[in-house]
Amino acid sequence: MDPIDLPMPAVRRPAPAPDVRALEKALRLRVDGDVRFDSGTRAAYATDASNYRRVPYGVVLPRSPEAAVETVAVCREFDAPLLSRGGGTSLAGECCNAAVVLDWSRYCNRVLSLDPEARRCVVEPGIVLDDLNRQLAPYGLQYGPRPATHATCTLGGMIGNNSCGSTAQAYGKVVDNLHRLEVLTYDGLRLWVGRTADDELARLAAGEGREAEIYRGLAALRDRYADAVRERFPRIPRRVSGYNLDSLLPEHGFDVAGLLTGSESTLVTVLRAELELVPVPAHTSLVVMGFADIAAAADHVPALLRHEPHALEGVDHELVVAERREHLHPEALALLPGGSAYLMAVLAGESEEETADKARALVAGLPDGVEHTWYTDRRHMDELLLVRESALGATAHAPGRPDAWEGWEDAALPPERLGDYLRGVAALWEEFGYGRPSVYGHFGQGCVHNRIPFDLTSEQGIARMRAFVERAADLVVELGGSLSGEHGDGQSRGELLGRMYGAELVGAFERLKTLFDPRGRMNPGKVVVPDPLDAYLRLGADYRPWEPEVAFAYADDDGNFSHAALRCVGVGRCRSSRGGVMCPSYRATREEEHSTRGRARLLFEMVRNGSPVDGGWRSPEVRDALDLCLACKGCKADCPVGVDMATYKAEFLHHHYAGRLRPLAHYSMGWLPAVARMAGLAPRVVNALAAVPVLARVAKAAGGIAPERDIPVFAPERFTAWWRARGGARGDGRRGEVVVWPDTFTEHFHPAVGRAAVEVLEAAGFRVKVPEAAVCCGLTWISTGQLDVARRVLARTVDVLRDDLRRGVPVVGLEPSCTAVFRSQAAELLPDDPDARLLCERTRTFAELLGERAADWQPPAVDARAIVQRHCHQYAVLGFDADRALLRRAGVDADVLDAGCCGLAGDFGFERGHYEVSMACAEAGLLPAVREADGETLVLADGFSCRTQVEQAGTGHAPPLHVAEVLAAALRGEPVAAERPAAPEVRALLPVAAAVGAAAALSFVLRATRRPAR
Predict the structure, then answer these.
(1) Per residue in 769-789, pLDDT tens?
(2) Residue 31: which residues within 8 A CB-CB, separation 6 or more?
(3) Dihedral sign for Cα atoms in the order 326, 327, 328, 333
(4) DSSP tally for the chain: helices H, then strands E
(5) Could you count the other beta carbons within 10 Å of the beta carbon of residue 590?
(6) Rounded-to-5 percentages of helix, strand, coil across the chain
(7) Taking Cα atoms as reference points, which of 637, 600, 640 lies closest to residue 823?
(8) Residue 343: strand, helix, or coil
(9) Which of 491, 508, 788, 807 is the most exposed place for a label (fewest CB within 10 A)?
(10) How far apart are CA 293 and CA 343, in angstroms?
(11) Are residues 179 and 257 in contact, defined by beta-carbon separation less than 8 angstroms?
(12) How many whole angstroms separate alpha carbon 969 and alpha carbon 973?
């Protein structure tokens, strides 16, 4: 083929901004999917996990690949740039652009076919890797590459990035695990591509039309550049930078699917993918080795590769220190052997004996002085590997260290040169004043990750960052490596490709771009003809965030709300579908704006200058995104960078409604402690009135309560009334005094929990005190953003408890949400009150107190099975280890559910408009588990919300119990049963109904008699 048949190199073709309103209208008319051009959505999609920020024109969530095809057609008619996106976790800026964003993840997430014998499946691009592997597990199959974001990354995103992960050591990159792709060009050509035999290539190239043009061009590119590709492409396991021109070589079967893999939405839109699957290893073991430093560990990698590990990961001492400071994975960190850097080798085999033999051989070859540990159980292996998988988030905002950023985080070297690179880049860090950033990565394939404390907010700092990156790129090229080992080029490295490949091959990349996307509208500015690596920064030299006055202290963010809003690094763990708690509203809606990440992005945009979210605390976009936040605090524990959206929501609501009318629920449920105290004066009358349907409807409407909910029944006798009636404390008190906290829910709704706790604590040897004054933790005011009231309530509570706190008396919380306020938010709202800090230090859960101060006390034998729902605040703030230990001591065979949030979450599930999401959260795990439990199995839930959600769901199971109730029943030798206030019977309602009817009739008569005569 003559050179003239080669496509011309790509050139920058700036597109004039399309008529956005007309574009949106056309998309709404023609596309089957969600079309979002509002400022909130655009702000949420303005960045990925990188340093870059581009506000899109709009976002389309197609319901099918055919809807995506129509989206591309509309964009083509308006000459609008297009970006195809999966999980949005890209680190090089490839997932943010001034374009129409196609987000596949909400709807296009199906497995379309599966052939277990051929080990292949066809999927839509929005399916998440872990979700796919769960569907493959019954067949003993999996998709091989497994990035650290496996719980949230989509297959489309993995194809776009040519992802790898730790298991690429055994299975290779995505390009090595693809059979075919169905793709769409910007100009409308739709076709399946894969390996192409010579005769098939000849037939396709000889035809007419666009398809033939593409195949002729590809053949010409292969013929022209084959020698240069063989010469300049690094022969290493992790060459991800640039386009995969090597896939066109004869030795790779002219694989067009392989060529397009890793093209980052710059060439085509992937519609469907046929994947090649691998068997799940029958047995695995993990050997962890400790070395003197990370370069010494890297030097030993080639020796370990002779043992053919399934994965070989590396982490350094800086990462371990950062995770210890952030209290991440303490049990796993305790398992590490001696050393200051670690290699983790996963070994796989068909039998335990084979795996053990491999581990023994590996250990036998270790140099003298290298300590090691060896695990074969799944729990310890998962915990240790999670230390490595959590590295990106753990090193972003490490306590006591400057914030660290991506930008040079993905170099890949020949494994035998890895130690040389680590020593060389460490010298560069010192030269540029970056200290010793943490190092981790897939060492078996020479891939190194790290985050560097770049200054991205001043011209001088950005210039220094550019100079460092250019020097580091030269070092990688000198050592025969690749600029990217799995994160892709995007904008971070696109500009540097000339240093790695030379002008000739960069010209080949540009010609390939022109062949597939002659108008340059597919994700422009990425990979080829790239935007500068220091342009369109998320921060930048002009970054001047708004620093508003705040109510909480934000001690971990130096008191700055703008820094709290900057915490999210975009890894998207909040978008996982299972495990942990975060984020229940995303799991129910699959909406980016209703994930922790989406909300954090909107808060960042709210304080950022030059943002589409420009209303400050009055921003409706932020209000709407926070509306479905359950304030469960799951993110406080599960988010690797410690985003605390419950606190941010309370802060926002506090300012948003300052001086304005609030939602009705803020008055009814925000002031629940006061309402409950009034109801406690005549609980039977209140219950009777609430049981009359017409009155209940009126009350719920007036209080902003979901009509689907039942109003909880008030107890006929309050907990503190019972306490006074019994005459106060009993028992010998040999273990000292404790204050049992009479939270609103125990006091007014489930006082049996308080009575049971007193009985157990006294039996264990404590002398119980209950505050005489009316007290409250302020939780309901906090959750509704009424922080001035909450602060006053908390201050009064601290005054009431002050003498006991100063005498060292512990405060025992029975309701996890209230206990968590004392342990966490009290000191944030009262940072200048040392007794508020004492309250934090003295507060204990029921189980913690018994474990710490009565470790020698033997609980009564319960000997029962139980499923346990942890309250979210218990999970996130208080911890559950003490509860596990107490249940074990009592002989309870406890299945602690990993089912996420119950969905009620205090006032959330009661508020009008939230019922559907609330129940969807519960149906994700909790309610199915309760329904499946037999009648002999106890349901334990210390949280009032969790118990109420189960009780109102009509599962047919006995009501859930607090652990104190279970132990108290065992002490008495009685069957375990929940003692709950009962709703009035129909017969008891007759007088109330008659009174209501009489009042209505009297009102009618009075109105009629007052009517003027005509």
Answers:
(1) 999 888 999 999 999 999 999
(2) 60, 62, 67, 70, 71, 74
(3) positive
(4) 45, 25
(5) 18
(6) 45, 15, 40
(7) 637
(8) strand
(9) 807
(10) 11
(11) yes
(12) 6
Dihedral in degrees, nearest 10, Cα atoms 171, 173, 177, 180: 180
Helix (H, G, I), strand (E, B) or coil at 893: strand
Cβ within 8 Å of residue 431, ≥6 positions away: none
| The pLDDT of residue 868 is above 80 | yes
372/359 Cα distance (integer angstroms): 11
Average pLDDT over residues 435-441: 95
Contact (CB, 8 A) for 498 and 508:
no
Whole-angstrom distance, CA of residue 1010 vs CA of residue 832 = 61
Residue 707 CA to residue 704 CA, distance in Å, equals 9
Question: In degrees, to the nearest 5, what angle opens at C-alpha 204 toward C-alphas 203 and 210?
Answer: 150
Q: Say if residues 459 and 330 touch (Cβ distance below 8 Å).
A: no
Residues 6+ apart with CB under 8 A from 76: 186, 187, 188, 521
Residue pointed to by tokens 């350094």:
316
Contact 276, 358 (CB under 8 A): no
The kind and range of the H/E element at 290 are strand 283-291
Could you give the CA distance from residue 786 to residue 782 in angstroms, rounded to a whole number?
6
Q: How confident is the model at residue 87 (pLDDT cuts 50, 70, 90)?
A: very high
Neighbour-count burial for 165-185, b at 16+ CB within 10 Å, e otherwise? bbbbbbbbbbbbbbbbbbbbb
Token reading at 133:
């592997």
Q: Supply the pLDDT for residue 1.
A: 43
Name residue 1007's amino acid. Answer: R
The pLDDT value recorded for residue 925 is 94
Token reading at 384? 């240790």
Say how far apart CA 890 and CA 885 lie, in whole Å. Answer: 9
Do 838 and 767 touch, CB atoms closer than 8 A? no
Q: Indicate if the pLDDT at residue 731 is higher than 90.
A: no
Section 784-802 average pLDDT = 97
Q: How far apart (Å, rounded) are the C-alpha atoms in residues 446 and 293?
A: 16
- Distance (Å) of CA 83 to CA 160, 254, 534: 11, 26, 21
Cα distance from N-terminal residue to C-terminal residue, the chain: 101
3-state secondary structure of 956: coil
**How far, in Å, CA of 229 to CA of 233, rounded?**
5
Token pair in block for residue 850: 């018994």
Could you write out the DSSP letters of every residue in 475-497? HHHHTT-BS-SSS--TTTTGGGH
| Among candidate residues 706, 630, 628, 631, the one with its CA nearest the CA of residue 664 | 706
- The secondary structure of 355-389, three-state, reads HHHHHHHHHHCCCCCCCEEEECCHHHHHHHHHHHH
Locate 658 and state its tokens.
Answer: 């300052």
Strand, coil or helix: 12: coil
In single-letter form, the type of residue at position 393 comes to G
Q: Is 837 exposed, middle or buried (0-12, 13-18, 19+ CB in 10 A)?
A: middle
